[in-house]
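Researcher: Let's try something more involved. This one mixes different molecule types, so please make sure each is placed in the same coordinate frame as the others.
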Amino acid sequence: MHAVLTLLLQIGVILAASRLVGLAFRRIQQPQVMGEMVAGILLGPSFLGWIAPGVSASLFPAATLPALGALSQTGLVVFMFLVGVELDPKLLRGRGEAALVTSHASIVAPFFLGSLLALYLYPRLSDESVHFAGFALFMGAAMSVTAFPVLARILTERNLLRTKVGAVTIACAAVDDVTAWCILAAVVTLVRTEAAPGELALTLGGSALFAVGMLFVVRPLVARIEVYYRNRGRVLSQDMIALLLLLMIASAWTTERLGIHALFGAFLMGAILPKDGQFVRDLTAKLEDLTVVFLLPVFFAFTGLRTRIGLIQGADMWMQCGLILAVAVAGKLGGSAIAARATGLSWREAGALGTLMNTRGLMELVILTIGLDLGIISPALFVMMVLMAIATTFMTTPLLEWIYPSRLIREESEAAESKADAVLIPVSLPSAGPELLRVATALAPKPESVVYALHLMRASEQSLLDGHREAGRSEIEALAPLLDAAKSRGIDVHPLSFVSRDPGDDIVSVAHTKGASLVLMGWHKPVLSQSILSGTVHAVMRDARCDVAVYVQRHYGPWRRVLVPYLGGVHDRGALELARRLAKGGGVIGATPGVDATDRHVTILHVVPPDRPEDAERAGLSAAASAFRADQLELKVIEARSPLDAAVAEAKRGYDLVIVGVSEEWGLEPRMFAGEHERLAAESPASLLIVRKYRRPGDKTEILSAASLRADTPAPSTAA
Amino acid sequence: MDNTSDTAPGPARPHAMARTVLLYLGLVGIPALGVAAILRAGHSITPPISVGGRWAIETDAASAAAVPDLASAADGSAPTLVIVQSGVRLAMNLGESGLATSTARLDGNRLTAALAKGGTAQLALDGTVTKASGSPRLTGELRRLDCSSCPGVDFSAERVAGPHG
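Model: All components are placed in one shared frame. Result:
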């Protein structure tokens, strides 16, 4: 058959097998990559070559394997570039002593045991063409590796990222990833220069020069690409992608030429790219699908073709295989868990961390392939290590479920979310800062809630040459009035500032990163639109995974009378919740000097249609009336055909603040463009706080009741 | 309002730091020293000799006549023996004859193997690897297992390619 036809047939079979087996593995709660690894083995001599040698020989004739191998290596180069791109340097530092000790121990413990095992395996599974030092160091590195991409996916899928275990694990895995690759680079250099001693100086000197050049010459240059990307409206053009791929290829070529390996160059190029979230997302989105769906399965199949399980013969070799697995698990799982326990995690948490770190997956296969290509490990040892990689990856999900059930993860994750409770204040107009701070402190869910003040600069304010820099003095000056007010009131506010092309997207991103439970936005009349809930506000209300409130200031001074129009929707409940925080916490109303405690009211205006019978919501409100009174809330029920007319009429009766949930009934809905609505906002003389309540997945709309009010009573606020 | 600092107050801090240092030394420092000790100890281990790669078997007409598999493996040129080595364990293929190892083992510089086709052992190999100047040589005897009366045939082979090419 023609070579191209054979190659296309091979790729087709590989893709089909990897998707089918991947699907089957997903059905048993295993990651897709696990199925793809197994599919590769199934296509090799261990299964297809065993049950149908004729089919195997005609599908994968030896003469075509170099082409498949080249495609596989190309896929790996791009994949390692993506691994580098997604590497977040923030994860490598500042995670505390527990993460430092645990991450280093999780490398050294399996490294030590792997080297120890080398003493036993070297005379049995290696030969004189490999020096012991290279063999032992390689075994150590291969035992130490963690599959960062698979692990990150498992953490995300199981909602573990915001738990303590998740935070420490992801930091440890990132450290492990980088360290393992550095060790492996050293091992490869050692082995290659042993074979050609004259090249040692070239390899070491060239590698040092290359690393310095990448960090101090190439890195600032690629930072400008990212600035260019932002100033072009965050559009990643084909020219920019081509440039980045060219840089990746140049870097991979250089490291291969230096005698390390092409994969290190690709990884380093990805690692030094700027880590702006949107840039990384865009770049990976462009490259990831093709790499993961198309090229990586080819690598798995090529690995499978080299995995001949038949090389493991006899009980003693299977025992060696078992020993490798035991040492791998003891070193990585055991070492990480003991270190985590010693640094303060519970046994359950430490066990979960160890289990996650024990996931080797694809990264192990990459390392083993390098080892086999260089002759550091023998074919039989390669097979044993591949089986170990598959076994340790496969065991992760069931072991994790056993050690750390999903139910517990959910509870801990919810606890972490409730602990976060930060408030984010995006500040556009500097003069509005102090008032927004006053509102934010009054609405903060807890006394210990962290307040972040965010000022976003327009991209045009930054020149291309400014590069990638932290928020400077001029940016903080925009927050100066707010920070001065905070200082005078003894409130600690964290200022944030950066260039933004898409403020809505950036506000949502910062809110998520900082664990905000409330985004409080100010509103000032824009040039072109009269609408409050359009533009950036619309984007934030649409995308933020937390409550959002927009404050429209009309009344100056303390709020004596607050109105909460209420129909019973989820956002109305959000408005009610904030009103209760104001009233019960004593926040603005209670703590305002000179305001008589008896001269303050929060009125809940429950509007019901005249022809509507008594419903559950109304009954719940009535039942909760006593709880409202205890919180200084007054319930007022009126019958009206038009809730909006009733609310507008009531708002004109001397209220200082109206707190209202977004809804069609109130004429307040977030829209991309301004429309003929927002009458309540237009006609109310009082200040307005428009609330969009975030509904977490799985949240149910409950009927308001006295019991539910007691359950979510907030702690008293210290805000003044 | 902000209360996020996790810094322990006053005197507890130096104690925690000392504990961390001790933990680090115990969990990281000692295993690292262990790795250094292992690398030192490993120098004294003698690994199996290297026999992996492609070997060209030198035969004469009489040998080829006595062992038909050699002739079929030769395909007109010198028959080749491909050895995949994993320590003392070997996997062999004799040219295009279809003969592959059923068992093979390396003991010092002595190599013994039984080559089979279709599950039936047909050829026994007993050889010694010697290293003079240049490429290693394998010399020994090939004997048919399906013919007890057939005499063994001496052979000699030279490694023409290592395990990686």
